Amino acid sequence: MKFAFKFANVLGAIYRKGDILFTPDGNSVISPVGNRICIYNLKNHTSTALPIESRFNYECLALSPSGNLLIAVNEEGEAHFITLLTRRKLFSYRFNETVRRIIFSPNGKHFAVCKINKVFVFHTPEYDGTDRIIGQITLEKVFADFYDDTTSIDWTDDSCVLAMSSKDGLTKLISMHDRSRFHKYTLSGHTDPIVAVFFESSSLNLVTVGRNGQLTLWDCNTDLKELHKLDKQLTTKMKEIVLNDDEDDIQVTLDDNEKSLALETKSEPLDDSSFKISYHRLSKHYLNDYHKFEKRVNLTACVYHKSSRILVTGFSNGSIFIHELPEVTLIDSLSISDNGIASVAVNNIGDWIAIGCENQGQLMVWEWQSQTYVLKQQAHASGISCLTYSNDGSFIATGGVDAKIKVWNVESGFCFVTFSDHSSGISDLKFSNNRKFVVSASVDGTVRTFDMHRYRNFRIFTTPRPVQFSCLAIDATDEFVAAGAQDVFDIYLWSMKLGQLIECLTGHESPVSGLAFSPVVTSSVFVSVSWDKTLRMWNTIEGEKTYDTIELGAEALCVAYKPDGKEVAVSTLNGLISIFDTSSGYQLRSIEGRNDLGSGRSLTDQITAKKNLDAKAFTSIAYSADGNCIIAGGQSKNICIYHVAQGILLKKFEVTQNRSLDAVDDIINRRKMTEFGNLDLIEKREDSNVKIRLPGVLQGDMAARSFKPEVRVFDVAFSPTGLAWSAATTEGVLIYSLDSSLIFDPFDLQVDITVDSIEQTMKSNKLKALVMSLKLGEIDVIRHVLENIPSTSIELIVRSIPTAYLERLIKFLSSSIESTRHIELYLLWIENLINDGRFVKGSQKTILLGLYRNLTKKHQDIMKICDFNKYTMKMILKRKVKSKNEDPDESSVSDVGMSLGI
C-alpha cells in the first residue's frame, strides 16, 4: 500500500469568522475556515480547500482586482500572499498587530491596512503569474491622525483619495498625492464606532455607517473628474511641461496620472479662484428603527455595491436589510438566524449576496431579486463526534453534538441533506452496505434509520427502559442492528425488517465502548469491548450465550474488524492496539502507540508534557480497505498509520498547526507565567477579568466566556475504495486522498522499456505495447496506447493479456473513465475485462468499489446532460411548430437564433 496521501479538502466546517469575498467574475466565494481557506464554486457547485495552512485563524481577506493575488491575514497579524493561479503561498509578511481591515486600490498598485490607530499604505509587489515575485512589498505612507483604532477604509475609483474611519466616530479623507486643493478632511457626527465607509462610484461623495445603525450620506461640492482641474497650484516642473508642446517629455518625466493632469490643464485654462473642496451632510438615517421591539441590536457587517447603489447591512440579531441609496429605500429584508451576521459580500453584478454567520458556521448566497438561495450550507454547531463512509466512498455521514446528522458529497464537498430527528448528541452512526439508509445512535436513548432516497426517518428503535447509547454496529446483510449502552452496560439487538427488539445481551460490567459486526456475509458474529477490560464475541443467532470472552490488559476504548473477518483490533487505555484472531481468540500481536500520539500540553495544564502523555490513548481505529494497515487517532493532533503484520509506524499526519486551538504545542510559553498565575487563565474584556472556561470543560462552557477548544481527533475512517481516508477533528472533517501524481509505480520494469520503444512497438504489436506501458506505469503512456487500439481488437487483447496485468489495467480504467471523452471505448474495455472472468475471480473488493463509484458518477453526469438536451429539443420543436405559419425565411432565422442562444 502506498502512503503518498495529501490534504484534499475539509468538510463539516463551512465558515468560522472573518471576511468573505466574491471573485471578480462573481462565480466563486472565498471563505476562511479556521486556519484554512476554502473556495466555493457556485457555478459548478464544488468546494476546494487551498493547500495552505496558517498557525492561527484567518480573519481578514483581500483580493486584487485581477483576482490573481489573495492576501490573508490571521489573528496574530501575519499576512500570507497567495496566488490563486497555482494556489500557492508566495511569501509572508508580519504586521505584528491585529489587522481589522485590508483592501486593494482599484488599480491594484497599492493596498491599505487598518492596524491599531493607523492606516498603512503598501505598494503591491508584482509577480509573473506563477510563483515568483518581481520586486518586494514596500511601505509608502502612514496615516496616524486617529485617537482610537481604525475600523474601515475605502478608495476612490481613481485610487487617489483614501477614506478612513475609526472607533471614535470620525472619518478622515487623505489624498495619496500632494495636492494643494485636497487637504486632510475630517467628518464627524457619529456617536458610535463606524463600521464601514464607502465612496460613491466615480465620485467623492461618501457613505458612512455606524455600529448603532446610523447611516450618513455626505455630499462633496467637487466631482472626482474635476479634482485635477481645480488644482491650479501645479509644481514648477509640471508648469514647464504644460507649456512645452512636445508630449514625449511628458512620458519621460511623469507617470500616467501626472501626464493626464498636464494634458487636461494644457487644454483648459486654469481656475485662479480660491475655491476649496468641502463636504456637507446630505441626510442621516437610523437603520435600527426597523428593530423597534428589540434592544441592544448592533450593526455588525455592511457592504455597498457602488454601480447599483445597493447597501446591504447585517445586524447582531441575524437580520439582513437591503437599501437603495440615496433615498435609503428598503428593497428587501430577511432573517438568517438568531446569531449575528459576521460578514457580507456582493458579487460584481450586485444580484448575489454572500452572508456568513460566525456562531452557527453558516454560509449562504442569497439572490435577492428572485428570493432564492444560490448556496446554503451550515456546519455542525457544536463539533463533529463521528463519521462513516458509504460503501462506494461517494458520501460521508457525520454526527454532531448538536443532535444533527449531515450527509456530505465527497466530490463536491457540500452537504445535501440534514436529519434533525434526534434530541441529543449523536454517539455513533453507520451507512448500510447497500447505501439505502443511515443508522444512528444517540444519547437520547433511540436508534434511528434514515432513508437516503426519501430523506426521512422510517425506523425508531427503542429499549424497555431509557438508556444512553455509546456505540453502534450493523451486520453485512443489513438485517441486524446492535447498540451498546454506557449507563446500563447492556447490548441491544434489533431486526431491521421487523423493527423490533430481538435480544438484550448482558455480561459486561462497565460501559460498552465499541461494537463491530463481522464483515463476512455468511457470519452472524459480532464483537463488543467495554471498560471492564474484556472483549466478548456474540452470535446473533444464539444470542443468549457469549460466544467467547477475551481478557484485556486495560480498559477498551474501540474495536475494529479486519475486512476479511479473520482478525479484530482493540485499542485500550494504556495506549496499545491489540490484534486478536477471531477463530482461536489468541492475541497475534500488539502495537505500542502512546509515544506516537504526542503530548500536546494545554495552556492551563499544571503537569508536564511527559506526565500528560500517560493519559493519552487512541479513541478511534479503522482498518484499511486491503486490511494491511490500521489508522488510529485520539486525544492528540496526530493521526498514525501502522502496518498490521510488522507492527511498525508507517506514517504520522499532523492534522493541524492552528495555535488558535488548545493543546497544539508541547511547551508552554514561560513568559506568560507570572507570580499571580497563568495569563492565559484571564480574559481581558473591557474593565473586567473573566475566567476563560470552567474546570474540566474541553469544548467550552457555552456561556459568554471565550474559550479555545482543545484539538482532538474524534473518529477516523478509511474510504472503502482505499484511495482516501477522513478524520473528524476539532477543525472539521479532514480528507486526505492518494496523490497518484507523486508516485512512480513500475511493475516488472526492464531496461529496454521506454516511451520511444513503446511507440515503436505499437506499429507492429498492440498487445505487447499495452503490456510494456503497464510495466512502465506512466498514465499518459497507457492512455495513448489504449486509445490507439481498435475497438474490434479489444476482446482478443483482453483474452491474451497476462493475468498479472489485469489488475493494473482495470485500475487505470477506473480512474480514467471519469475524465475521458472516449466513454464508449473505455466501457468496451471494462465490459470485456469483467466478462473475461479472470479479473473478477482474483480482484480485490476496493478496485470494484472504485470502479462502481466512478461509473455511477459518470452515469449521473451523462443523465443530467441528456435531460438538458431532451428539454432543449422539446423547446426547439415547439418553437418550430409555432413558426409554421410564419414566413419561411423568418422562421429559419428565428430557429437559428434560438439554437445559438441555447
UniProtKB/TrEMBL annotation:
CDD domains: WD40. Belongs to the WD repeat PWP2 family. This is Small-subunit processome Utp12 domain-containing protein. It comes from Parthenolecanium corni. One of its GO terms (cellular component) is Pwp2p-containing subcomplex of 90S preribosome. WD repeats lie at residues 187-219, 377-418, 419-460, 505-548. One of its GO terms (biological process) is ribosomal small subunit assembly. InterPro entries: PWP2, Quinoprotein_ADH-like_sf, SSU_processome_Utp12, WD40/YVTN_repeat-like_dom_sf, WD40_repeat_CS, WD40_repeat_dom_sf, WD40_rpt. Residues 883-902 are annotated as: Disordered. PANTHER family: PERIODIC TRYPTOPHAN PROTEIN 2 HOMOLOG, WD40 REPEAT PROTEIN.
